[in-house]
Each structure stands twice: as structure tokens, then as C-alpha cells.
Amino acid sequence: MRKLLAVIVAAFWAISAAPFFVATSALAADLNPPPPTYEIPDLPPVDYGLQGSFYLRGSVAGNGWWASDGSYCGCVATFVSPGLGFSGGVGVGYETGDGLRGDLTIDYLSINGLTTTTGHTVNLRSGLVLANAYYDFSLDGGYSGSAGGGFGAYVGGGIGFAKNYSEIFDNVPTQVAWGLSVEGAAALMAGVTYDMGNIVADLGYRGIYMNKVMSQPPNPADAYIINNNLIHEARASVRYRFN
Known about the structure:
The chain is mainly beta. It has two domains: about 30 residues; about 190 residues, Porin (Beta Barrel). The chain contains one helix and eleven strands. An eight-stranded antiparallel beta barrel has the order 1-5-6-7-8-9-10-11. Strand 8 and strand 9 form a beta hairpin.
């Protein structure tokens, strides 16, 4: 009888206390809300900086040829007027992406009319091969080097050789001598550019120096030497960049 009475009392107490526990659980749930969920924002793309790229180039130029002095048939002559002409060339190069680039260029030069005090006129046809190095920098305050965009400028230098065909005429005019020779050559360059991405337009100056232009004729008496040759060029180029 006592056990039955204890069971009845326990059951009654459980029934009476159930609303209290439910309310307590609800209050605890209200006091401890679930942790908030956070959305991870999209990260911006990683900027790896300017990358290197290969490029092809083509150039055309107008030029003027001057020299310090020359000798022909044992006579020393100076020059009274420059030779004028043009050049055109192609090249292939690579830019590192941080302002440095280099290329190999091949140009054909055609110049006529370098005139001496003795009345002779010299014409020149030359194949010029140069290995060149440059430094590009921005004029817009942006990146230097490849894909910098906008206006820029550069300075550079080159070294190589020229295979020259030259001929000398008297005032009749009659060709009195001609010759072929291979000479060392060097160049300095400077200019401005406009970078459009894959295409870069370039307008600049190139000065080409050759120590000698000389003939090697069958008759040594017809030999001539022209010293300290400087060719000034106003040059327009286009580079196509492989990105």
C-alpha cells in the first residue's frame, strides 16, 4: 500500500512539474540564441604584377648620314653636306615586365648624297644587325614595363655589325669606286610610346655609329675610307606583344 501511494505521489509531482521544466527550457533557449552565421566575402583576384612577354616589332625611319672626314686616292676630304635616306626593319624581343626589355633587330638602310669638298658624292646601302637593351618607364604615373598602359618613354642602346655596300661618284656623275665591307656598329635610342595592351606604338630617335665605311676594290688605288660615321634617324615603330 505504501509503494502504491509513493508511485501515485511521484506521478502527480511529475505531472505538476512538467510545465515548469518546459518553461525553463524555453527561457534558456531565449537566453542562449544560436550562434550567428557569417558569410565569407568574395576575395579580390590576386595581383601577380606585370608579367613578361615576347614581342615582334617593325620600324621605318628617315635618316641623315654625316662623317668626320674621308680619304680617296691618297687625298683627304671633309664633307660639306649630309647624305639623306630611309631605313626599315624588323625584330623580335622579350620584356621582363618590370621595365627592362631587349630585342634583336635587322634593318636595311639606303642613304644617298654624302658630299665631299672634292666634289665627290657617296651613297650607302647597309644591312644592320643589332642586339638592343632598353628601359621603359611610365609618363602617366602608372606601372613601368609591359602592359603598363598609356603614355611612356624609354632609353636604350645596341651593339652589332653592319654589312655595307658603298659607292663614290664624281660630279659628272660617274661611278669611280665602290666596295663592300663589314664593320662594327653601335646605337643609342630614346623615344616615347603609347601602350594599348597587345600593341605598342613608338616614336623615337636612333643614333647609329660606325667607325669606318670603306671599300675593298680590285684596284687598291681606288680604295677609300670614310671615318666616324654617324647616322641620325627619326624612327616610328610598332610592337605586337604576345600576352
